[in-house]
Design goal:
alpha+beta; OB fold (Dihydrolipoamide Acetyltransferase, E2P); about 30% helix
Amino acid sequence: MQLPQTKFVVIGAGVVLSMAVLVFVGTQGSGMGYYMTVSEFLETPVDAHAGMRVNGKVVEGTIEREATGEDVAFQMTDGIATLAVYYRGIIPDTFVDGADVVVEGRLQDDGVFAAHTLLAKCPSKYESADEYGDATETAELTTSE
């Protein structure tokens, strides 16, 4: 009768220990799970600018693509502050003026954010019709004819 109780205790302890290890490993990341807004990022101390994620919108008319097709410079904003960004890599198709973007990288000495990751958020197909104005009405008219 003692053996089944011992097995239960050993298995239970193993499960608790495994969960503790998973929680510990999951919280020991580099702090990159969260992203900051542009103004939050610019307000942080300079030594904290290594390996950060910054969220904002691409400022209209600031996208400058280089001939390589994999280099782009642009400015992003959160409506309060603006940040110059340079990215080298594959540029997402959804990267356009006004797009929501998340960049990951570090701030260089010249004040330009050198991004090694560029994520352009896809617009939701469930956004309100007010954001799209008359385009929704036009689409409904052409599909119903």
